[in-house]
Write a structure and sequence with these properties.
heterodimer; A: 4-stranded mixed sheet; about 70% helix; elongated; B: Arc Repressor Mutant, subunit A; 7 helices; 3 strands; disordered C terminus; hydrolase (chain A); Peptidase family M48 (chain A); Beta-lactam_resp_regulator (chain A); protease (chain A)
Chain lengths: ~300, ~150
């Protein structure tokens, strides 16, 4: 095994900023797909690389070698014992992070669903919570069940009837587009490689933009959709919001409103798209090469003729 | 403000719009005529009446006599308490978690966002853009659990 096995671990550092730049220039749906798919591919490759490194190291242990029917020591592989130990530790950390992410995810979704069922007033696909604080979100359903739109009474009162329709259309777009799957995929990818966290904000933004466009199409008025978002965001003031710490110079909400009011034609930066494609392919190629290489070494060590 | 397009839609979506209108009325019972006015003329009065009757049968709304018909109110048990408990539970979960499960309509505004947003809305020229939303609603939201939620049953 050569340098190739290390590359999938490092390439996300290059690919994440490229994907971010590219998503910025693409239409929302394409951007969301690009971000989620590249994150999952990069995470899979880096995790596979960790597995290969740890596996190659494990084969040096006599019991593992015996289990693998190795009659000779594994040769032609330059994985040092410390490197394999580090890889094994990282792999364990990834496994722990994955379990943690899944557990918290399931817990939160369950809690939100249970509470919506117990305290909300339901009609059609809407659940209203009696709460003066304005809030609205799409609550994904259990597998095989449709999701629900959850809105507080405070949010409904902050919007006029036409704006309420825009809000409902926006949340319906989240549910019918199964946007939570994108978010879940990225959360799991982030558990595998921390550099992919860079893609979280762009993915959220792309999904919100997609739902905004769907809402604008459903109510037949971009300006109305923009006003609904704006009024909903300002209705939340001055209540303290836990999200406030996230924002950079100009946050996603003004950018969404601006995008609806003055749409611009997206131009794809080809160079960045090519770079990203090259990096993801290289990452997959390296992981595959390292796997084939290790497989070859094992066969040799098993005494089989090559 | 253009009419919301509520004609020819799945009945679940119509029910949602009707319930939203009842809740937005802030404790005032609405007659089918009121709801129809809220949702726009594309919807027949009989359709609204049917939907309200269906919601009443499901227990989502309560009703009182009003003239020759009924006026409707959304059903809420122990106003706000349970919802607030839920909010507290959800707020406990970290930003990352909430973001991965619940796609929210609007996230928080940064320090400069409010100014930028108000300017954008003023440019869009909405009648309510200048004060950042319909007045009573904004006040009710700010009061957080004030009189708004404890309206007549």
């Amino acid at each position: 095994m050569s340098i190739a096995v290390w590359l999938p671990l490092l390439l996300p550092l290059l690919a994440a900023p490229a994907a971010r730049r590219l998503a910025d220039a693409l239409p929302p749906r394409t951007a969301a797909l690009l971000l989620a798919v590249s994150a999952v591919l990069l995470a899979a490759c880096s995790t596979a690389a960790l597995g290969l490194l740890a596996g190659a190291g494990a084969l040096r242990l006599p019991p593992v070698a015996a289990l693998g029917h190795l009659v000779l020591p594994v040769v032609g592989d330059q994985v040092t014992v410390p490197a394999a130990c580090v890889a094994a530790a990282l792999l364990t950390a990834v496994a722990v992070a994955l379990v943690h992410a899944v557990r918290r995810h399931v817990l939160l979704a369950d809690r939100a669903r249970r509470n919506a069922e117990q305290v909300g007033t339901a009609a059609g696909d809407l659940t209203v919570l009696s709460d003066a604080r304005p809030d609205a979100y799409a609550l994904p359903g259990r597998p095989g069940q449709p999701g629900r739109i959850v809105v507080t009474s405070g949010m409904l009162r902050a919007l006029d009837p036409a704006e309420r329709e825009a809000l409902l259309a926006h949340e319906r777009a989240h549910l019918s587009g199964r946007h939570h799957l994108f978010l879940t995929a990225l959360a799991l990818a982030c558990a595998c490689h921390p550099a992919l966290r860079l893609l979280r904000a762009p993915l959220s933004y792309a999904l919100e933009r997609g739902a905004d466009e769907a809402a604008a199409a459903a109510v037949g008025d971009r300006r109305l959709a923009a006003l609904a978002i704006g009024h909903a965001a300002l209705a939340g003031r001055p209540a303290p919001r836990p999200y406030a710490a996230l924002s950079v110079a100009t946050g996603p909400v003004p950018r969404r409103v601006s995008a609806l009011l003055s749409p611009r034609a997206a131009r794809t930066p080809r160079a960045i798209a090519l770079l990203l494609a090259a990096v993801v392919t290289l990452s997959a190629g390296c992981a595959l090469y390292a796997a084939v290489d290790l497989h070859g070494s094992i066969e040799v060590a098993q005494g089989e003729p090559r | 403000m253009p009419e919301p397009s509520v004609g020819r839609r799945p009945s679940g979506e119509l029910e949602a719009s009707v319930l939203a209108a009842l809740w937005a009325a802030d404790g005032h019972p609405l007659t089918p005529a009121d709801v129809q006015r809220e949702l726009g003329t594309a919807l027949a009065r009989t359709t609204v009446t049917t939907i309200l009757a269906r919601l009443y049968e499901k227990g989502s709304v309560s009703r009182t006599r009003s003239g020759r018909g009924y006026a409707y109110l959304p059903v809420q048990d122990s106003p706000g308490l349970a919802a607030r408990r839920m909010r507290t539970e959800l707020d406990k979960s970290t930003v990352d978690d909430r973001g991965t499960v619940l796609a929210r309509f609007v996230s928080g505004l940064g320090p400069d966002d409010e100014k930028v947003l108000r300017e954008l809305l003023a440019q869009a020229g909405g009648p309510a853009a200048a004060d950042g939303g319909p007045g009573p609603a904004a006040a009710g939201a700010a009061a957080d659990g004030g009189t708004g939620d404890g309206g007549p049953r």
